[in-house]
Write a structure and sequence with these properties.
190 residues; globular; two-stranded antiparallel sheet; 7 helices; binds flavin mononucleotide
């Protein structure tokens, strides 16, 4: 059984990334033979990168890195769900990515971003980074527009399934591409 990690890419109080990641997971899991699991960066609680050696060496000094490595190594592919922060993506996600190398490398990844003006710039930056990690990115990477009327108060959706329904087809397309990539060997020509 192949396992997909759905990374919750922000950690601030009142964040909406966890609700969006759960919504993405439910859509992806629906009718799929794969296992999807939320990976919350808040739970990983990684300090700012404090490993003496570069991740590409695979030499890890700290228990938090070893735990993070074992968790990520257990997945066959990923969906990163990240808000757009100042035209980029959250520092906590870059930090979590930089901790490891082989654990990401070669694996398929779909990108879902969101923001008050969508998340296209976040996705552009993440595309560059996942390419640097030699991950295999889906062609479809949904960017979701958040609008004020979707929230009863900051951080709380009124009806997430209804309000994000327009983006569900793009999430399904991304997931189908992710499954296709999983079936292709990592070194297959693109
Ligand atoms: C530090 C910060 C920077 C932001 N920059 C952008 C931005 O560049 N473009 C955008 O559309 N929304 C931006 N927003 C709005 C966020 O996308 C929106 O608040 C979203 O809920 C943040 O995700 P989170 O709740 O998971 O932290 C920003 C929000 C924060 C907190």
């Amino acid at each position: 059984m192949k396992r997909i990690g759905v990374i919750v890419g922000s950690t601030r109080p009142k964040r909406i990334s966890k609700a969006i990641a759960a919504w993405v997971l439910a859509i992806a899991q629906d009718g799929s033979a794969l296992t999807y699991e939320l990976v919350d960066l808040a739970d990983a609680a990684l300090p700012i990168l404090d490993e003496p050696e570069m991740a590409a060496t695979g030499i890890y000094a700290h228990d938090h890195t070893k735990r993070w490595s074992a968790l990520i190594a257990g997945f066959d592919g990923f969906v990163f769900v990240a808000p757009q922060y100042n035209w980029g993506y959250p520092a906590v996600l870059k930090n979590a990515l930089d901790y490891l190398y082989a654990e990401w490398s070669g694996k398929p990844v779909g990108l879902v971003s969101f923001g008050t003006r969508g998340g296209v710039r976040c996705i552009d930056q993440l595309k560059t980074v996942v390419t640097g990690l030699h991950m295999r990115n889906t062609a479809t990477n949904p960017a979701l527009n958040m609008r004020e009327h979707m929230f009863s108060e900051p951080g709380t959706f009124i009806d997430i399934a209804r309000d994000l329904e327009e983006f569900a087809p793009a999430v399904r397309a991304m997931n189908a591409e992710l499954i296709d990539l999983l079936d292709q060997p990592a070194d297959a020509p693109e």
